[in-house]
Known about the structure:
The complex is a heterodimer of chains A (about 300) and B (about 300).
Chain A: H1 3-34, H2 41-59, H3 62-85, H4 93-115, E1 131-134, E2 137-140, H5 141-163, H6 165-175, H7 177-182, H8 187-209, H9 219-234, H10 239-264, H11 266-287
Antiparallel strand pairs in A: 1-2
Helix pairs in contact in A: 1-5, 1-6, 1-8, 1-9, 1-10, 2-3, 2-4, 2-8, 2-9, 3-8, 5-6, 6-8, 9-10, 9-11, 10-11
Chain B: H1 6-26, H2 29-54, H3 62-78, H4 84-106, H5 111-131, E1 141-142, E2 148-149, E3 152-153, H6 157-179, H7 182-192, H8 194-199, H9 204-230, E4 232-233, H10 235-238, H11 241-253, H12 260-279, H13 283-296, H14 302-311
Antiparallel strand pairs in B: 1-4, 2-3
Helix pairs in contact in B: 2-6, 2-9, 2-11, 2-12, 3-4, 3-5, 3-9, 4-9, 7-9, 11-12, 12-13
Amino acid sequence: MSIAFLAEQSFNALQLGLMLFLMAVGVTLAFGTMRLINLAHGSFFMLAAYFYAWIIAETENGIVAWIGALAGLAVLAVVIERVIIRPLYLRDHLEQVLATFGLILVFNDFVMMIWGRDPVYVPLPDALSGHIMMGDIAYPTYRLVITAVAIISGLSIWYLIARTRTGGLIRASADNRPVVQALGANVDRLSAGVFALVAVLAGIAGIMTAPLIAVTSGMGDSVLIQSLVVVIIGGLGSIVGALVGALLVAFVEVFGRTYLPLALGSTSGFALANMAIYLLMAVTLIWRPFGMFGKPR
Amino acid sequence: MNKLPLPTRIFIVCIAAVTIAALAAFGDQTTLRFASRIAIMGLAAVAVDVVLGYAGLVSLGHAAFFGVGAYVTGALALAGHTEGLIVWPIAIGAATLAALVIGALALRTTGVYFIMITLAFAQMFYYSANAVPGLGGADGFRLPSRSTIGGIPLDNPRIFFLLCAFVLIAVLLFARRASFSAFGYTLQAARDDAIRSAASGIENYWLRLAAFTISGAIAGLAGVLSANLTLYIAPSSVLSWHLSAELLVMVILGMAGTLYGAVIGAAIFLALVEIISHYTDFWAMYVGIAVIARVLLIRDGLLVTLRRLVTA
């Protein structure tokens, strides 16, 4: 096993980790600010990929497709928040689970109705389809670029939450929503804003992943579950936890798939690789039931 | 949950008895198959209701126990073991063990964590089933034949339906009896006020773990019956997390915490799917809209509204 191969795998893991972070931070923010468990978060990942594939097929302009897909997603998120999600903030988690599960059923069928049952393939942008030499490894340019975009998105989120007045209000309403409201902040608008923001983050992850995998109905489901595992490990409501959890899960996932089949033989190694992130989750739960950075609720 | 008045209860029991007898006597193959499915999914929904209605825990992972029951039955059938008196206890035991382990970990938390952890562990079973060699992977596999019970084959749809109905009724009676026992009352006390029940010396954790494990055994039994009904098992049909969510929907369509409400909910749900799928391939979309509407518009559920009319 050469150092070059190790470096390449580490880079893949870093990239998967950042992608998971963009998803998981949305789950954690929605719960932190609004006490909302949103199973339809994976649907935003899927819808963005479909919007992007559709617009880029019509216009053949990557930038228009990016902006169009994310803007469409943000508008959709605001409407969904107003009509379906807002009445659920004060209800119990069961009703949130059921309503957002209903949304998943609707969106999964909706994309099949509009764009058909066959997977949609999104072309790589020409300018990014080559390789970049890093030392003696040829690494795909596209993967390098999306890693950069994910880092920039992550930093922007951190800046927004930790350094701005809006971020202060978001953190404050996570701690005590009624008081923030009593102090004159418009928490309804804040919630709508946060919901649109997390949808756009999931959308960014979806658009960037689209050229690497086939765009299909239900593609958001597995990403949703992985980001839930991230949040369970990191601790619900903690942004640092989402980052650490995402990187941990990504490294275990990528290296598990590479090395376990080599170490244990292909069948048992492959089976164990499938279970690896859940075993990591089980170990975390034994050690800290509410996640590494979470507080008991 | 307060009891319904005695005449109403007798009425409901009579209707159920007449329905089962009429189906067994006059039902054709298709009807019997559909009725068996309602009984099986009703059984799985009862398992979810034990945890949801009596322990107050939202489990999004019951597909794991259903799936383990089905997969063990299927794997043993492939190996040539079809005697139900041997195979079924093994399959149910495996599901019970899975529930014990998942429950022991997940019950260290509550609320949203519990929901997400049960979901995540169920997905672990889903992905493992995809990777196990010899069981068809993602495509699933066919069972060579149905189980036999004491050498009696279950191929006759009438006998199979009666068996499903019998199992469902036996489990309903057992669970109802348990809900009026000391175990049932302390479990509900822990649901209503965990701090007070703990202060009264009730061990919330072990109580909930017992309920969760029993529930897993019931879901496993439903999985065993399901494998025998469909004779086809795939991760996407018996281990999908959509199944877990659908079971919750069934319980909520009826009424949580009543046991029989789960069976009625299962019947409503399956009938709804059956009817809508006659008209469109995109039935899941309409089911989704119905679920959202139920949550947002009919807050109490169908049966609560109906029950209020009866008891008023």
